[in-house]
Amino acid sequence: MPIQHCIVHDIDKAGSDQPASLKPATAELTTTALLEELLSRFHDAYHAKTKAWGHFVTASDDQAEASAGLATILADYLDGKRDFTGFTREAAERLLPVVDAHLSVSGHLLCIDYRQGETHYFALALLHQREGFGVTDSLQVVPATQLNLARMSLGLRINLTQWRDGAASRHYLSWIHDRGGKKLSEDLAGVLGATEGIDATGETRALLKAFSDYVEQEDMPEEQSREKTEALIDYANEQAGRGEPITLEELSELLDEQQPKAFYDHIRNADYGLSPEIPPDKRTLRQFRRFTGRAGGMSISFDSHLLGSSIEYDENQDRLIIKQVPKQLKEQLKKRQG
After folding, report:
1. Per-residue pLDDT reduced to its tens digit, 34-84
2. What CA–CA distance (Å, rounded) separates 338 from 333?
3. How far apart are the C-alpha atoms of 14 and 247, rounded to whole Å?
4. Which residue in 37, 60, 122, 142 has the fewest CB atoms around it within 10 Å?
5. What are phi and psi of 153, to 5 degrees?
6. In angstroms, what CA-CA distances link 113 with 7, 78, 271?
């Protein structure tokens, strides 16, 4: 991931009752192997977070007028009207009210302009420090301070290629939206002049529902169902780890090389309302697994998230209780009883 520009500004926050202040850097950092490794570690930490996905507010959005916020100064930087140091300094100043309202500790504002393959990105994150231990060349234990990437609660990434190309994407911008940090996320979006363009959690759930319906409709054998489930989860997690969306057509081809359009056609014909590209929600993916079993002429398969709601397991009496019998099965049972 070649770094084009990188700088670190310091945001000082002495306590919850003290206003945040900015100590701006006067020059960019020189790109080194260590800085490249920091970018890689930041990538991993950022993509492990729950995020909101959206775009800059424009005049065509009904909810608000076009923003003159980050989009304007970012465009000026990309057009050569501002240098990277000046652009990031102004961005940092705009973030001070958000830090004041929601955070009580100081941090280092990491700003990076970089490329990943042919895609151009800008990322920004407030990184905090933690105290730890180190060992010197003389094997003495000494205190050591390091950046705590896992604690990152304020961060964003912009796909500059999608944004500048004028693509129809409504999710070229993402920002951290951790559980319990809803107001922080909303205030950050306000400073960015951004609005959510897609519900990643809802879309991921809808995709998994579509997949479950597809498996049931095709009446797949247990082994085939398990293989396709693992293929979907592996692909979705790989995309999440790269910070890239799930592409429905690509997923459909992956699930069935012989009929590469089968799953895609199922989604479109059933009208699940899914976007062609879906930012994967890792928390939702972690909850999705299929329980399967076959014995004595009986085959059972269901998604793990149904356990405790539509399906209950009574371990003491070794019973599986199905509360919502599938319509097709219900009709067969009624015919049998009649």
Report:
1. 999 999 999 989 988 888 898 998 765 554 444 457 999 999 999 999 999
2. 9
3. 45
4. 60
5. -120, -10
6. 9, 10, 39
Instruction: Report the half-sphere exposure of 279 (CA within 13 A, side-chain side).
Output: 23
Contacts of 73 (CB under 8 A, 6+ apart): 82, 87, 90, 91
Question: pLDDT tens-digit profile of 96-122?
Answer: 999 988 888 889 999 999 998 889 999
Query: One-letter amino acid identity for 189?
Result: A
Q: What is the pTM of this model?
A: 0.75
172 within 8 A of 53, measured Cβ to Cβ: no
The pair of structure tokens assigned to 260 is 């590469």
The span from the CA of 288 to the CA of 226, in Å, is 12
C-alpha distances out from residue 302 to 82, 196, 264, Å = 56, 32, 21
Residue 263, token pair as written in the block = 């799953």
Q: What DSSP assignment string belongs to 129-164? A: EEEEEEE-TT--EEEEEEEEGGG--SEEEEEHHHHH
> Which residue, among 184, 189, 8, has the nearest Cα to 103 in the 3D structure?
184
Tens digit of each residue's pLDDT (9 = 90 or more) over 51-62:
889 899 876 555
Q: Is the dihedral of CA 30, 31, 34, 38 positive or negative?
A: positive
Both tokens assigned to 178: 């951790």
